[in-house]
């Protein structure tokens, strides 16, 4: 049972045992040393059942070692057969003194026995004690040893439940270091609770080993659960980044700046969100995948941009000459087209163009227009294209008639200028 002290459970307090020894000599040992020695297990190399039974009794009594007191009395008189008829003045005075000390000791260590709310007097307690002894002899109630085992078993179960509840509150996955730290703190707290409530010195050692073994088993299950959740989380993040890299490979308008932004964002999110024991292995896979994607993008980037610029220059030639009829637009487009085609013919390959300073300027200009903090042209390519088409159609239909005077130089017809006076 547990005693209550200001609303808190305290350690089990068994009955006090008083070992009273009356003998003439102690063989150079104190009475407490004699009791402790008497309760030590006897070696049983032959497996004798009787010795096992004796050892079991010794263990049962030793389990209450924290609650026993040893006391010795000297021989009261040499004439032992007449002790009952002797008065105190006839007895050995050392015996009388020790006897009085024994009475004080018993008074200090005993407490009133309460049964069903009633405090027993001496006669009632003797009757109750006889009933207890009869029940023990019949095996109807447990011995002190088995009682300790049952009591400590209950404490172990409560401690394991406390550990399980603490570990269940964890938001897995966690890093191995964090998880081990929580485990150590929870285990220390559980062991502290056990130390406050356990009973019996000898049995407590076995119970502590049993409790620690059960905690380690529970911790192994938590480790496996943490590894599983870590693997699921990191796998999901890896797949998300892999899909993101695949999307960046097929941009309508290739942009190295946009690819780098997506690359860094993906790498950053994986590094911060992927936690647990699986992070190391998935980080290696992630590095390889990102490196491969970047190399592939850069390899195709210049070629795609070159093709786009060729198509763009020819398109602007047509627009500048036949639709908008801006001379400067057509001239600029022709210059770009001639540069692209002539340079590659002169230096034998397109790849040599990519190291030219003029190409670097074109790339910088392209990157500024396609992807910047204000506009992502790849996302808005279709709306911008529709707006430009509407503008071109409007210009083709109305702009040439009403609003062309303030624009840049246009192609002009000389039909209306036949009567213009000639000047030398």
From TrEMBL:
Domain Guanylate-binding protein/Atlastin C-terminal positions: 117-246
GO molecular function: GTP binding; GTPase activity
Keyword ATP-binding: no
Keyword Membrane annotated: yes
Residues spanning the membrane: 380-398
Entry keyword set: Membrane, Transmembrane, Transmembrane helix
InterPro entries (UniProt xref): Guanylate-bd/ATL_C, Guanylate-bd_C_sf, P-loop_NTPase
Protein name per UniProt: Guanylate-binding protein/Atlastin C-terminal domain-containing protein
Organism: Pisum sativum (Garden pea)
């Amino acid at each position: 049972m547990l005693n209550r002290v200001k609303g808190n459970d305290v350690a089990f307090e068994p009955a006090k045992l008083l070992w009273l020894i009356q003998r003439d000599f102690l063989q150079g040992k104190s009475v407490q040393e004699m009791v402790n020695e008497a309760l030590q297990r006897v070696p049983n190399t032959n497996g004798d059942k009787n010795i096992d039974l004796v050892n079991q009794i010794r263990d049962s009594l030793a389990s209450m070692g924290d609650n026993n007191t040893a006391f010795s009395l000297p021989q009261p008189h040499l004439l032992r057969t007449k002790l009952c008829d002797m008065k105190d003045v006839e007895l050995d005075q050392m015996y009388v003194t020790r006897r009085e000390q024994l009475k004080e000791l018993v008074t200090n260590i005993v407490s009133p026995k309460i049964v069903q709310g009633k405090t027993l007097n001496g006669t009632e307690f003797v009757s109750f004690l006889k009933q207890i002894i009869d029940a023990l002899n019949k095996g109807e109630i447990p011995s002190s040893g088995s009682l300790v085992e049952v009591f400590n078993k209950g404490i172990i179960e409560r401690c394991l439940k406390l550990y399980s509840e603490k570990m269940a509150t964890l938001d897995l996955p966690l890093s191995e270091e964090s998880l081990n730290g929580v485990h150590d703190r929870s285990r220390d707290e559980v062991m502290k609770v056990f130390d406050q409530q356990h009973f019996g010195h000898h049995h407590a050692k076995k119970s502590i080993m049993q409790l620690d073994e059960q905690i380690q088993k529970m911790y192994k299950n938590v480790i496996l659960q943490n590894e599983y959740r870590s693997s699921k989380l990191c796998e999901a993040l890896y797949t998300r980044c892999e899909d993101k890299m695949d999307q960046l490979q097929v941009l309508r308008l290739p942009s190295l700046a946009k690819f780098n932004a997506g690359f860094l964002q993906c790498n950053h999110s994986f590094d911060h969100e992927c936690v647990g024991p699986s992070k190391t292995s998935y980080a290696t896979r992630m590095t390889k995948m990102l490196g491969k994607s970047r190399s592939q993008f850069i390899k195709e980037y210049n070629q795609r941009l070159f093709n786009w610029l060729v198509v763009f220059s020819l398109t602007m030639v047509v627009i500048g000459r036949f639709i908008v009829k801006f001379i400067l637009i057509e001239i600029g487009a022709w210059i770009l087209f001639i540069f692209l085609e002539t340079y590659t013919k002169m230096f034998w390959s397109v790849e040599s163009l990519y190291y030219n300073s003029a190409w670097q300027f074109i790339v910088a200009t392209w990157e500024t227009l396609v992807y910047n903090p204000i506009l992502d042209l790849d996302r808005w390519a279709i709306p911008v294209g529709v707006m430009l088409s509407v503008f071109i159609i409007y210009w083709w239909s109305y702009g040439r008639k009403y609003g062309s005077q303030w624009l840049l130089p246009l192609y002009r017809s000389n039909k209306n200028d036949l009567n213009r006076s000639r000047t030398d």
